[in-house]
């Protein structure tokens, strides 16, 4: 008992003194952290402490009787990754402390602690924790704390004995394995690709009009160009990064799929489209203009910043899949990579807009040269109306209103593109259109360029018409509402029938039950066309997979996921791929953006990964993907055995290579069969 009170008094005394002298002695011990790979499944995490002269750093606790000791703790969620015990290496000394009447163990020069951590070659995660230590300086006993955060990176199998990568692959793999230079150029290329997405491309005429009117001379044009492009880079880099860090890795995905956000995008595109058709001009409020005249620099910047912010917000729904992987890494703790990546992405996105702003005079000349510039603007106006319907469809699907079902959507697109064709042929004119040029015989004519665009528009209309009767329209299926929303289909188009399907093994699949009535309208066209059976609840699908002795395929997807529909239309629809999916797997479609299917109160819980309470099916699926599989982009596929053990190391994201996907399916089936007789199935 006397030893207990002595120790308690010593600890209290140490902490009391630390408030006065700890700041002065924080450099008494310096810590460094690193890790080395020791095999394909483990790394060795190293904590090295360099002790200054005259300092005694107390060792780890040897027995419950120790009074002064140091300790190392890891994040509680990562304790399952730790292998063996913590190993201590150094010249440990011991002596009896007269003031405490207790034996103490300590180091006076340096010490190293080692901990084995489970980490496969494909794993990437943030290892974090803290070192709580005690040390003696003269007659003072002082506490200290050093927190560590080390990002464990994926690695090639070609490693040396020290864990250094010998032959890094130049292609493939995780973004986290690459240098910052590689990340920058990869993201820069993604930004160039994003320029041709509808959300970004449709903003170009708005920008041209804005800077044409705003820039009165070359100097002002250059200043506006720098401000505008810098605003795009600043907003995209900082805002996107902060949203992910603060609100979690699904924040931007939620913005792109949120029904309110999509209604806002629909309104913006509708207004832009009507404006381009000549109904009115989009201009900043006159009060802004007056302020700009009185305070030129402030007003000018606010207007330009507003335009940049509009571009960033509207483009999120199209650029999200491209920057998704960078944002996932940001949410898991590696900040430099996504910062550099987002900077490269936004820089590529801003460059063309800066070029438009650098040459406003040239654009003015082009605008006065003839009516072709207005014809381009009107054409983009029709495209804006068509794209506005896509955002309205996203909101409609998210809420289940059924106001824009597949045949309604196709009908509207048929009308819009038919009218565009007639406009290009000169059969429709707007109030601000110029007269068509006339030939030598004083007869109006259209250019060959306009003729070819008109042919393309009418051809697109002819292509879409069979979709009114249920044709799959594979080329644009990614943009259309799913086949399950169509009320009428031709008898020649096969429908999903869960009671029978081609292939004997497929007939054994029972009809989905949980969530099926609410979710079947979201089934993609390829599922409906080929009579596939897919489930919507993880546990239900897992039980079916166990009974039928098949691997379980997790299909993380989204109602409004364009890349998901492209993957299904381009890869799943291949006959050999479809045969494998139907006959060898049980598939569960885990929609991450379903906000209109509520969980039962008993199923609701709080998610640390999402930093929110999970109340909907979409949030539940998103939490599963982020927290268990460390991914946040769709589509993403994972394969499990009966004991929920992964059958592939990294999962499979969007990749339209049919042979690669087919080979991956074969490898999963082969591994499943090889392991099936060696495991005890959890029921």
Mean of pLDDT:
75
What gyration radius follows from the Cα positions, in whole Å?
Answer: 31 Å
Q: What overall form do the CA principal axes indicate?
A: globular
**Tally of helical segments:** 21
Task: Give a count of the beta strands, DSSP E runs of length 2 or more.
Answer: 16
Low-confidence stretches: 1-25, 156-178, 291-299, 328-334, 363-370, 491-507, 679-683
Estimated structural class:
alpha+beta
Walkthrough of the structure:
With 683 residues, the chain is an alpha+beta fold. The chain has 4 domains: 2-152, Immunoglobulin-like, CATH 2.60.40; 181-377, no CATH class; 405-489, no CATH class; 494-676, Glutaredoxin, CATH 3.40.30.10. 47% of the residues lie in helices and 16% in strands. It contains 21 helices and 16 strands. The chain has helices at 2-21, 180-194, 198-201, 204-214, 218-247, 251-257, 259-276, 286-294, 296-331, 336-358, 360-369, 372-399, 406-424, 448-464, 516-519, 525-530, 538-548, 562-572, 575-584, 617-629, 658-676, and strands at 29-37, 42-51, 55-58, 71-74, 82-90, 93-97, 102-107, 110-118, 125-137, 140-152, 534-535, 552-557, 586-591, 605-607, 612-614, 636-640. Strands 3, 4, 6, 7, 9 and 10 form a 6-stranded antiparallel β-sheet that branches. A 4-stranded antiparallel β-sheet has the order 1-2-8-5, with no helix packed on it. A 4-stranded mixed β-sheet has the order 11-13-12-16, with helices on both faces. α5 packs antiparallel against α10 (336-358), α9 (296-331) runs antiparallel to α10 (336-358) and α12 (372-399) packs antiparallel against α13. The longest helix is centred in the middle third of the chain and has 36 residues, at 296-331. It is globular and about 115 Å long. The two termini are 51 Å apart.
């Amino acid at each position: 008992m006397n030893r207990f009170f002595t120790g308690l008094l010593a600890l209290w005394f140490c902490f009391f003194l630390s408030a006065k002298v700890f700041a002065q002695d924080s450099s008494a011990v310096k810590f460094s952290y690193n890790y080395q790979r020791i095999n394909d499944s483990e790394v060795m995490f190293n904590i090295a402490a360099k002790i200054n002269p005259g300092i005694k750093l107390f060792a780890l606790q040897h027995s419950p009787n120790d009074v002064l000791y140091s300790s190392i703790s890891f994040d509680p969620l990562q304790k399952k990754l730790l292998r063996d015990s913590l190993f201590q290496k150094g010249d440990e000394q011991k002596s009896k402390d007269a003031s405490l009447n207790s034996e103490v163990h300590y180091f006076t020069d340096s010490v190293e602690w080692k901990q084995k951590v489970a980490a496969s070659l494909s794993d990437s995660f943030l290892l974090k924790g803290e070192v709580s230590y005690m040390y003696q300086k003269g007659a003072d006993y002082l506490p200290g704390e050093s927190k560590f955060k080390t990002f464990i990176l994926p690695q090639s199998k070609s490693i040396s004995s020290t864990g250094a990568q010998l032959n890094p692959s130049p292609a493939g793999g995780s973004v986290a394995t690459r240098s910052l230079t590689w990340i920058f150029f990869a993201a820069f290329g993604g930004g160039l690709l994003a320029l041709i997405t509808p959300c970004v491309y449709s903003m170009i005429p708005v920008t041209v009009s804005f800077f044409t009117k705003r820039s009165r001379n070359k100097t002002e044009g250059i200043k506006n160009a720098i401000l505008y492009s810098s605003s795009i880079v600043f907003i995209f880099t900082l805002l996107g990064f902060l949203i992910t860090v603060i609100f979690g890795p699904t924040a931007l995905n939620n913005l792109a799929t949120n029904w309110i956000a999509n209604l806002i995008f629909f309104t913006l595109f509708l207004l832009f489209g009507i404006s381009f058709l000549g109904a009115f001009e989009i201009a900043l409020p006159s009060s802004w203009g007056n302020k700009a005249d009185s305070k030129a620099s402030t007003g000018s910047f606010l207007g330009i910043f507003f335009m940049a912010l509009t571009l960033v917000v509207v483009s999120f729904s199209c650029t999200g899949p491209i920057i998704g992987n960078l944002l996932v890494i940001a949410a898991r703790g590696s900040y430099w990579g996504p910062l550099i990546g987002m900077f490269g992405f936004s820089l590529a996105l801003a460059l063309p807009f800066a070029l438009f702003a650098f040459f406003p005079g040239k654009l003015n000349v082009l605008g006065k040269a003839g009516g072709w510039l207005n014809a381009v603007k009107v054409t983009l106006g029709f495209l804006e109306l068509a794209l506005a319907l896509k955002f309205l469809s996203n909101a409609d699907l998210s809420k289940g209103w059924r106001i824009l079902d597949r045949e309604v959507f196709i009908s509207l697109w048929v009308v819009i593109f038919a009218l565009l064709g007639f406009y290009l042929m000169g059969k429709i004119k707007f109030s601000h259109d110029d007269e068509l040029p006339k030939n030598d015989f004083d007869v109006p004519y259209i250019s060959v360029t306009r003729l070819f665009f008109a042919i393309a528009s009418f051809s697109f209309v002819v292509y879409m018409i069979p979709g009114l009767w249920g044709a799959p329209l594979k080329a644009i299926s990614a943009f259309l509402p799913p086949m399950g929303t169509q009320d009428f289909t031709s008898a020649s188009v096969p429908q999903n029938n869960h009671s029978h399907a081609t292939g004997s093994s497929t007939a054994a699949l029972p009809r989905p039950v949980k969530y099926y009535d609410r979710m079947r309208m979201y089934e993609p066209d390829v599922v409906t066309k080929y009579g596939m059976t897919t489930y919507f609840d993880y546990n239900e699908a897992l039980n079916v997979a166990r009974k039928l002795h098949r691997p379980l395929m997790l299909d993380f997807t989204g109602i409004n996921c364009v890349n998901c529909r492209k993957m299904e239309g381009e890869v799943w629809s291949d006959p050999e791929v479809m045969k494998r999916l139907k006959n060898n797997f049980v598939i569960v479609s885990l929609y991450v953006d379903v906000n209109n299917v509520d969980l039962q109160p008993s199923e609701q819980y709080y998610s640390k990964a999402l930093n929110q309470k999970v109340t909907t099916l979409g949030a539940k699926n998103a939490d599963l993907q982020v927290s268990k599989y460390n991914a946040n982009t769709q589509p993403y596929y994972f394969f499990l055995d009966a004991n929920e053990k992964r059958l592939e190391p990294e999962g499979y994201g969007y990749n339209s290579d049919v042979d690669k996907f087919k080979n991956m399916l074969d490898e999963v089936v082969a591994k499943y069969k090889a392991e099936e007789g060696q495991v005890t199935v959890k029921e």
